[in-house]
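pasting input
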Amino acid sequence: METLITILVGVLVTVAVYLLLSKSLIRVILGTAILSHAVHLLLMTMGGLKKGAVPLLGENAEKYTDALPQALILTAIVISFAVTSFLLVLAYRTYKETGSDNLFLLRGPKDE
Amino acid sequence: MNNIIVMPMLIPLLTGILLVFLRPYIKVQRVFSLVSMTATVAVSVYILDLIQTDGILRIDFGGWLPPYGISFVADSFSMLLVLTTAIVTGILLIYAFSSIGRRHESMFFYPFVFFLVAGVNGSFLTGDLFNLFVCFEVMLLSSYVLITLGGRKVQLVESIKYISINVLSSWFFLVGIAYLYGTVGTLNMAHLSVRIAEVGQGPLLTVISIIFLVVFSLKSGLLLYFWLPGSYSAPPTVVAALFGALLTKVGIYAMFRVFTLIFYHEPGVTHSIIGIMAALTIIGGSMGAIAYNDIRQIVSYNVVIAVGFILVGLAVSTEVAFQGSIYYLIHDMIIKALLFLLAGTMIYLTGTSKIEKMSGLIRNYPLLGWLFFITMLSLAGIPPLSGFIGKVYVGQGAIETGSYFLLAIAFLSSIFVLYSLLRIFINCFWGETIINEDDDVPLKKGMLIPLVMFGILTIALGVGAEGLAPYVSDAARTLMNPEIYIDAVLTSDR
C-alpha cells in the first residue's frame, strides 16, 4: 500500500511541476494546490498507513495506528486551503489591475 | 511549567483579533496597539530575566509531556530575539501612525502587523518542528496581506513572485518534516536531537538536513535571495522595514536552531555548505548593493549581505562566533528597520527613489542626514556603534577555526556596505540643494521621532553591550551545548 501511495505522490508532483512551469497564473495556482496535496499524502505515508486499531485509549488493541500524521496533515490542509484561496483572490485582483494573467507579460522590466 | 512563556505570542494574537473589531476607531486602534506592544516588551524582559535564574523555561500545552505534546521553550537566544522583535515593532508602529495613511489604517493594517508579530514570536518560542511550520505560515500569511495591502500594480505583481516562492519553500519544509518523521519518528526538537545522536547522523539524515537548509535559505535569503530585492521594495515603507527587520531573521533563527541542536554531527558536510552559501551570499549581495541607483534596491541588497554575515558565525560554529552572530542579529534587526525607514523617508521627501535625482538633503533636513550617517557607520561596524561587537566576535571565531577565507569575505563586505551607503550619502545629502523653499516638504515629527529612537537604540546597543553580555553568552552557551536544551525539555519533573 505504501509503495502505491508513494507512486501516486510522484505522479502528483510531476503534474504539479508541469502546471507550475506554465505561463498562465491560474495554472500555477492549481499547480501549488496539487503540490501541497502531494506532500500531505507523503506525510501520511511516511508515518505508516493503517497498521492496527484506531488510536483510542481503552480499545486494548495490540497495535495502534499512528494518529500524529493525521493531525499534521489536517493542519497542513487548512493552511494550504488558506494560501490557495488567498492566491486565487490575488490572481483575480491582478487580472483586474493589469488585464492579463500571463506571467510572461507580468514580469516585464520595471526600472529600465 | 510556566504559563508566562506563551504571553509573547498570545498578547499580539489577542490584540490583533481585538483590533479587527475596532476597525472604524483609528485612534483607539493606535492606542491599543502601542499599549499591547509595550506589554509584550515588558513580559519579554521579565521572561529573559527569569531564564537567568531558573534556566530554560518550558510550557507543555494541555499537560502533555514532551515528546508527545506541543511545547513552547524559551531560552536566552529566543527571548533576546522576541524582545528585539517587540521593541522594533513598537517603534515601527509609531512611524506607521504618521505615514501609513488612513486607507491602510481602516483596512486592517494594525491587526495584520500583530498577527505577523504573533507568528514571528511563535516561531522563536516553539519547541517542535511542525509547530515551527505552523507559526511560519501564520507569519507568512500576514506578510502576504501586508505586501498586497494597497493594491498598487507593482505590489500585486511582486507579491505573486513572493507568494509562489514561499509556497514552494513551505512545500519543501513539509517534505523535510515527512522524511524526518518517517526516519526517526518524532518532531520534538529536543527529542529529535536525542534520537539522531543515538542512531548517528548517516547520509540519509544529512540529506534531510540539507532539505531543511534549502527551506530556511529560501526564507532567510541565504544565497536563494533572488525574490528578496523585488518584494522588499514594493510595499509601503513601514511594511518594508518590518519585513527587512523581522522576516529574514526568523529563517536565520530556524537555521541556527536546527543546525546547532539537531543536525550538528556532520559539520564537515552541512556547515561547510552553509559557509560556502554564506560567502556567495555576501559576494552577490555586495555586487547588488553597488550596482543599483535605486535607494530601495540598495537597501534591500544590504539585507542580503547581513544574512550572509550572520551565517558565517553558524558556519564556523564556535561559542565566540555564536555570540557574535547573536549580537549581530539584534543589531541588524534594529539597524535594518532604521535603514528602511530612512530610505522611505527620503523617498517621501523628494518623491523619487533614484539617487541621482536627489541632492543636498542635509541642508533642509540636518537631523535626517546625521541619522543616515550614524546608520552607515553602524552598519559598517565602526566601534562605538552596535555593529562593531558582532563583527569582532564573528571574526574571532573565524580565526579560532582557521577559516581565513570566510573571515576575509565577511570583513570585505563591510567595505561594500560602506561604499554603497556612502554613495547614497554623498549623492543625496551633500552638494547643492535642489529643493527650493516653496516645495520644501516638512518632515513630520511623527516620522522623525521613531528614527531618532532607532538611532539612540543603535548607540545604546553599542555602548551598553556589556549589559547585554550575560544574556548573549548564556544564549551562545546553550547553542554550543545542546544537552542543556535537551535536559530542560525532556525532564518531566518541572
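fyi Chain B has a mean pLDDT of 91.
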